[in-house]
Amino acid sequence: MSSRFGRFFNVSTFGESHCYGVGVSVDGVPPRMKLTEADIQKQLDRRRPGGNTLGTERNEGDQVMILSGVENGLTLGTPIGMLVKNKDQRPGDYGSMSDIPRPSHADYTYRMKYGIHASSGGGRSSARETIGRVAGGAIAEKFLREQYGIEIVAWVSSVGQHDAKGIDVEAITRDQVDENAIRCPDHSAAAKMTAEIVAAREAKDSIGGVISCVCRHLPAGLGEPAFDRLEAMMAHAMLSIPATKGFEIGSGFSGARRRGSDHNDLFVRKGEQLGTLTNNSGGVQGGISNGEPVWFRVAFKPPATIGLPQQTVDYTGKPTTLEAKGRHDPCVVPRAVAIVESMAALVLADLALIQKMRN
After folding, report:
1. Are 222 and 352 in contact (CB under 8 A)?
2. Which one, of 37, 56, 65, 60, lies nearest residue 48 by Cα?
3. Which has the closest alpha carbon to 162: 136, 131, 194, 130?
4. pLDDT tens across 147-206, in order?
5. What number is the average pLDDT over the span 295-305?
6. Which is nearest to 88 in space by CA: 130, 50, 131, 126?
7. What residues are paired with 5 via a beta bridge?
8. Are 347 and 169 in contact (CB under 8 A)?
9. Which of 150, 123, 176 has its CA nearest to residue 16?
10. Is the pLDDT of residue 58 over 70?
11. What sign for the dihedral angle of Cα 165, 245, 136, 220?
C-alpha cells in the first residue's frame, strides 16, 4: 500500500521531502505503556540528516511531536499521531531538473503511475518518508523490549568492496555500532569505508553498501505460514525501504552452494528448551522463529542523484545533460541503520500480537 504497513500493530506514514512536514499514525499500541517523545527521538537522531560529514548537507533537527494517543506519559490504546516539521528544505535546488527524469530515480515511474510527481526532492519516494517508519518503529521496539526482552541491533557491514569482519551477532551492541560515524563496529573496515564514501563525494558520485541486523531473544513461534512467514514479512519490510535492492537471511545465497550435511542446524538442549548448534537458518524454520537470533542483511544501491554530468533525455525524449543539484547522501547506509532496526521492530511487534491472540 502507499501509506500503511502492518495489520494489528501498524503504521500509516504521510508527507513528502519538501512539504510542511512528515509524520505517522501508529495503531495497535497497547494501552498504559509509558511513552514520551524522548523514547522516540533517540532513533530519529540516528537517522536524521546533517548528523555527520558523511551524509547530506541538509541539516534537519527532526524533533518529533506527539499529537495524539498519549496522555500523562501513558499510551491510551488509540492511534498515536506524530509529526516532524521540515525546516531546511530548498525546493529551488530542483528547478532545473523538473523536466528531466533523473536516472535510476523515481521521477519517471511516479509520473507514469499518477500522471504527476512532486517537483522537488523526490517527494514521497524520498528517504524523508522514513521518518514516520523510524518513529513508529521506536514505539514497536519499546513494546518488544518490555514485553519480551527482544534486542534489535543493525550495523554497516560493507561499503563498496570493503567488508566488516569478526562481528559477533550474539553480543554486538548499539553503543559499539555508534562508536564511529559510519556505524561499523569493525574499526579497521570503518576507516576504509569512510575513505570510500569521502572519495565518492569528492568525485560528485555515490556508493552502495550492506546493512546487517540481528534480532535477539525472540520467543519461538512467531510467523504466519504459509504466506506471512517471518522471513517473508521481514523481506517485505526491508525491500520497502528506499534504495534497497537485496535481502538475504541466515546463510542466504551462500547457503545455496553447500550440502545439507554441512548446512543443517543440529538441535541440542539449551536450558529448558531446544536450540541449535549453528544458525544457518537465521533463526527461522518453516517461516516461524525457532528461538535463535534472527539475522539478515539488506543491500542498498548507490544513491541515484549524483553531481556528475549524465547524458540522458528529458520527458519529451530530447537528449540533454543532467548535472543534478541539491543536497544528497553519497552513501545511505550509515543513516539507514536506524531505519532497518525500526522496520524489523514493526514486523516483530505485529507478529507478536498475532501470536498473542492465538494463545
Report:
1. yes
2. 60
3. 194
4. 999 999 999 999 999 999 999 999 999 999 999 999 999 999 999 999 999 999 999 999
5. 96
6. 50
7. 11
8. no
9. 123
10. no
11. negative
Identify which of 182, 179, 237 has the alpha carbon closest to the alpha carbon of residue 209. Answer: 182
Cell for 36? 514520551
Q: Which one has a higher pLDDT value, 14 or 52? A: 14
Taking the C-alpha atoms of residue 236 and residue 347, their distance in angstroms, rounded to an integer, is: 9
**Could you tell me where the beta strands, DSSP code E, fall in the chain?**
4-5, 10-14, 21-27, 64-66, 70-71, 74-75, 80-85, 151-159, 162-163, 209-216, 244-249, 267-270, 273-276, 284-285, 288-289, 294-300, 310-313, 319-322
Calculated CA dihedral for residues 43, 331, 249, 262, nearest 10 degrees: -130
Which residues fall within 8 angstroms of residue 329, CB to CB, at 6 or more apart? 49, 54, 55, 56, 127, 206, 303, 335
Buried b (16+ CB within 10 A) or exposed e, 195-205: ebbeebbeeee
Residues 206-244: tens digit of each pLDDT: 999 999 999 999 999 999 999 999 999 999 999 999 999
| Domain 4-358 -> CATH class | alpha beta
Please state, in angstroms and as integers, the Cα–Cα distance from residue 345 to each residue in 61, 103, 120, 136, 214, following that order.
24, 32, 31, 9, 11
3-state class (DSSP) for residue 351: helix
- Residue 187, C-beta contacts closer than 8 angstroms, at least 6 positions apart: 179, 180
Q: Bin 217: left if φ > 0, else alpha if -120 < ψ < 50, else beta.
A: left
Residue whose cell numbers read 528448551: 273
Residue 63: C-alpha distances to residues 37, 66, 86, 132 (Å): 9, 10, 10, 12
Q: Say if residues 279 and 293 touch (Cβ distance below 8 Å).
A: yes
Distance between CA atoms of residues 346 and 299, nearest Å: 19
DSSP letters of 123-149? GGGSGGGHHHHHHHHHHHHHHHHHHH-
Nearest in space to 61 (alpha carbons), one of 51, 53, 75:
51
- Helix 130-148, helix 333-358: angle, nearest 10: 50
What is the distance between the alpha carbons of residues 291 and 274, in angstroms, rounded to a whole number?
9
| Residue 91 pLDDT > 60 | no
| Cell output for 261 | 550435511
Using CA atoms, how far apart are residues 185 and 165, in angstroms rounded to an integer? 9
